[in-house]
Specification:
single chain, alpha/beta, 18% strand, TIM Barrel, 200 residues, 8-stranded parallel beta barrel, globular
Amino acid sequence: MSREIIAILRGITPDEAEPVADALVEAGITRIEVPLNSPQPFDSISKMLLSHGGDAMIGAGTVLDVRDVEKLYKMGAHMVVSPDANASIIVATKQAGMLSFPGVMTPTECFAALQAGADGLKLFPASLSGVEGLKAIGAVLPKGTKTYAVGGVGPADFADWFAAGVTGFGIGSALYKPGMSVADVAARAADMVAAYDASV
């Protein structure tokens, strides 16, 4: 089962990259994002691609520069996640054959991102738009649009978000924080997967 959970590993270091990715994939989370404002993010992404490029979707988050999209493409990354609906980032990502998940909050941003070619919409911060916000926006989005709740969302909320029509989730500090042990990440990932499976 490919769960629509994107692990956001903000602050991860290259030394942690492979063991943390191992723990996530073993738990059943196979979508992993390393934000580019982490220490040496490209090194971490490279290590994850080497170890799990064939069985996980690995990419970068907080992508703000088209040059970084090109760099990720050359590395063999699979997806680009951005905090905003920057059309140049979306277009460059799609031209490179990668998946694009831009951050949106308003209907205007949603439609602009989709028009530029986005594969899915990252509702960020989801804690502000809330379930009711998704319901309202979802009423006008094209059928089949993938939406991901990111920011302030956790296992206790999964069922409510699914009921509102969300596709999946981006999970950051509830899964990983700098300094957290691999065992802790593994335990949190297992709990996250169990909650997800129970809510689908």
